[in-house]
């Protein structure tokens, strides 16, 4: 009897380990509906997942500068005429086609950054997209991806209401955050808080970005650039010997932070153990960004 009981326990343990391992190895299938900001925020997500031996499949429905309204209008065009190229902006595919490539475990949506702080811009398109996704993928989990505010030295900030722009980075973040949370409450959705993580850095002290007062962008001479240490945004750079200023999109550090937040949210695991660091992100800053992501995402 003792021998039989011992064999039974060993078999039970092996079966449990096998089943647990199978569940752990199950791939998360993720479809991202967004624009360049979602592309920025997930840029290094595959690298992080690979390092931590996580299985991840990512589908993309991204168009630069695309709002919730535009995504919905593309879907409407495809429904009205499946052959209409206007309804297939995602590398020749419609949203219906991409959704039916599922099943998808997670589908994310987001607002265009310029409109993110304007709650009225979400209606009725967030709900229409939600219902459309659920009709085609009823078991999927729909999540909001929260954008970040533009860098503190941006020439202008996102819209908070019709014909009214945010006065600064803080107001853009506050109004954007409020809008995302209002939509999340309406549709009962969770939020990937990338915008909150960016704000933690922007409102901190140790690694906060500060505008270089000595740099005169109107009289800049190639290849001179301002001190942009600790920036999460592209900022100033030269392209074909012409000075470009992009205070909106994420640079390597911002993409890293966004990807860390996505990783922590999707896999319910602290990103502080991650060793991968993109080029041009200093080790100390990278460690701070990992800590920031861990503090921002609540399991």
UniProtKB/TrEMBL annotation:
The keyword Lipoprotein does not apply. The keyword Signal applies. Gene3D superfamilies: SGNH hydrolase. Keywords: Signal. InterPro entries: DUF4886, SGNH_hydro_sf. Pfam families: DUF4886. Residues 1-21 form the signal peptide. Residues 30-199 form the DUF4886 domain. GO terms for molecular function: hydrolase activity, acting on ester bonds. This is Uncharacterized protein DUF4886. It comes from Pedobacter nutrimenti.
């Amino acid at each position: 009897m003792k021998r039989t009981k011992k064999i039974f326990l060993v078999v039970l343990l092996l079966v449990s380990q096998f089943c647990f391992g199978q569940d752990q190895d199950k791939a998360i299938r993720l479809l991202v509906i967004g624009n360049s900001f979602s592309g920025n925020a997930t840029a290094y997500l595959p690298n992080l997942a690979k390092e931590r031996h996580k299985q991840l499949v990512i589908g993309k429905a991204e168009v630069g500068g695309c709002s919730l309204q535009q995504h919905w209008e593309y879907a409407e065009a495809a429904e009205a005429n499946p052959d209409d190229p206007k309804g297939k902006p995602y590398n020749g595919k419609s949203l219906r086609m991409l959704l039916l490539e599922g099943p998808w475990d997670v589908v994310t949506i987001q607002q265009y950054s310029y409109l993110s702080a304007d709650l009225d811009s979400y209606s009725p398109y967030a709900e229409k997209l939600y219902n459309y996704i659920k009709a085609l993928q009823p078991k999927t989990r729909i999540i909001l991806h929260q954008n970040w505010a533009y860098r503190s030295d941006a020439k202008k900030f996102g819209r908070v209401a019709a014909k009214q722009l945010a006065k600064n980075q803080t107001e853009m973040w506050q109004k954007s955050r409020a809008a995302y949370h209002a939509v999340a409450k309406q549709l009962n959705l969770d939020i990937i808080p990338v915008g909150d993580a960016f704000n933690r850095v922007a409102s901190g002290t140790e690694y906060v970005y500060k505008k270089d007062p000595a740099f005169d962008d109107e009289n800049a001479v190639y290849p001179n650039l301002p001190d942009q240490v600790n920036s999460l945004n592209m900022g100033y750079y030269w392209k074909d010997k012409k000075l470009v200023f992009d205070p909106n999109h994420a640079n390597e550090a911002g993409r890293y932070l966004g990807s860390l937040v996505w990783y922590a949210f999707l896999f319910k695991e602290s990103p502080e153990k991650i060793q991968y660091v993109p080029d041009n992100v200093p080790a100390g800053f990278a460690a701070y960004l990992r800590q920031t992501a861990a503090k921002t995402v609540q399991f």
